[in-house]
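hi!! sorry for the late reply, been swamped w classes. u asked for the two structures so here they r. pasted raw, havent cleaned anything up. first the sequence of the first protein and right below it the tokens
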Amino acid sequence: MRTLFVLVALFAAVAQDPIPPAPPVDIAGWQAATWGMTAAQVRAAFPEAVPLNPPVEDVGAFWRLEWRQARLGTYPATAHFEFPPDRDSLCAVEVTIDPSYGCASVFDTLRTALVEKYGRPATETTTSGRNIFDSTSTKKQVQWLLKSPTIALTWYNTGNVGGVWVRYGQRRPDPTL
């Protein structure tokens, strides 16, 4: 009877004071590139990266460097290093999987790997509709909000055209995470 009492008391104490969750993982960039690097520093870290002239605008920043020898997991990819229009300071890296790989299965494989590494995503969305060519398009996106970056895995498919990419983007640190 005494053992039962001790077990009940122990269970009650644990139930009232649960173990706090581990703090979320934080990252300072992608591979050897860290937020705030200049284009010259990124080129030094990735010697095969080539300048894009003119730069390509994407989500308010510009792809200024492209590295075609990238890999994401086991998949060959191209990395685009993004900089704000008014500063020479790396703010994001978008890594696009070689389109010759099956998009849906690649998306699922990468989602599983990212969940294992960063935990449950903050958001998951799927949208479908008709595009201007009257074919069905589908977009899936999974997003993780870490302390200072956002990681977004996206799959887009419209008929025979599609793609999978991961965008690692810097944002203001969130002290609540």
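now the second protein. again sequence first, tokens right under
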Amino acid sequence: MTDYTDLIAQLKVRLDSFGDGRDLTSDNAKAVWYADRVMVQSIISGLMNIDSDLAKPERQLAEKIAERDAYLAKRTELEEELAVVVTSFVDSRARDNEHDRRYRCEQQLRLLDRGELLYAPGQAYPRLADLDVRISELTEKIARLKAKHHAYKLQAEAVLGATVTN
């Protein structure tokens, strides 16, 4: 969590220093006053909301990564089970059981690849490609939000004429 309370307080003092725009006589001066005021207000808002803006996509990213890890673990489990080869059988029943086991593993792998393998009632493992796309989208969104946050810091520096250390 980023703490910009001092910086926000300085920006609010700067905002108060603009005074009342109704005291200005020319339309150009009023337009400049309004633009400056809106800019400082947006910087304050951006700095105050950055943690809440980042919280949801970071939580979603962690969930998608956990889902991807669960998918990969299940795939590895099924592939390892399928890799076990039994060549000697006591009777035809054992041979049929081994054939059924291998068929079941192959079928579960196909279902897993299609995103149809259930891990709980009504809940299936998502397709790996879909997870990768969503993870990349969330990563890009987080990067955009962090860049936006950095831009707010640079704007605050420009408005206050001081370097922001956080």
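hope this helps!! also noticed smth abt the second:
Strands lie at 118-120, 123-124.
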